[in-house]
Amino acid sequence: MVELFKLKTVAPAQEKRVAPGTNIAFDPGLVAKLKSDHRHLLDTYSHIQTAANTGKYASLPELFTDFQSQLLDHLLTEKVKLYIFLSHQFEADDVTLQIVRDFQREMDGIAKAGLDFVRKYRTTLVDNATVGVFQRELEGIGAAVSKRMQREEEVLYPLYRTM
Predict the structure, then answer these.
(1) CA separation for the pair 66, 129 (Å, rounded)
(2) 56, 75, 95, 153: which has the highest count of C-beta atoms within 10 A?
(3) Hemerythrin-like domain: from which residue to which, for each copy (predicted)?
(4) How many structural domains does the chain have?
(5) Closest by alpha carbon to 46, among 28, 24, 63, 70?
(6) Is residue 130 included in any domain, yes or no?
(7) Tens digit of pLDDT for each residue in 4-37?
(8) Backbone angles phi, psi at 113, to 5 degrees
(9) Which domain, by its residues, includes 40?
(10) Are 112 and 148 in contact (CB under 8 A)?
């Protein structure tokens, strides 16, 4: 007899891990995306440095526009998908929750300084007379951001991966 209908066995849907009290689901690709964002931000930062070092000041506003866009996208993703998820996930773990909150508070300060710097130099002309000040400010922002990225990747992102 020919089987007209076959019953398919369907594997149970993988349980979606959602942070308690939210609709924010664990994203297995999030850490890779955030690390990729870091690489792109550092690449754009490097292009900004090169433009300043080689006197190509006219390219800076466009580079800053790119950097600002990348940074805002990254910060928003971190805030919504990472910090909120981790804050709810570790609600009952006071020590870990405090670490997450400290990271978020620190990031808010660094983000404000970085975005203020970008806004300033998207509209302020950099030329031979001002490039020295610009480069010092750029190095300060770069050092703070790269140190922060390293700490996120070593401390914060592993907390997310353990979910």
Answers:
(1) 25
(2) 75
(3) 31-159
(4) 1
(5) 63
(6) yes
(7) 444 444 333 345 688 888 899 999 999 999 999 9
(8) -65, -45
(9) 30-161
(10) no
What does the pLDDT read at residue 122? Answer: 85
- Bin 73: left if φ > 0, else alpha if -120 < ψ < 50, else beta: alpha
Whether 36 and 51 have beta carbons less than 8 Å apart is answered as no
- Single-letter residue type at 149: M
Q: Kindly report the backbone phi and psi dihedral angles of residue 18, in degrees, each rounded to the nearest multiple of 5, phi listed first.
A: -120, 140
Q: How far apart are CA 146 and CA 36, in angstroms?
A: 13
Residue 25, φ and ψ in degrees, nearest 5 = -90, 150
> What's the CATH number where 75 sits?
1.20.120
- What is the number of alpha carbons within 13 Å of residue 133 lying toward its C-beta? 10
Helix crossing, 94-123 with 131-151: angle to 10°?
A: 160
Which sign does the torsion angle of CA 78, 154, 96, 108 carry?
negative
**pTM assigned to the model:** 0.85
| Per-residue confidence band for 127, with pLDDT thresholds at 50, 70 and 90 | very high
CB atoms within 10 A of CB 39: 10
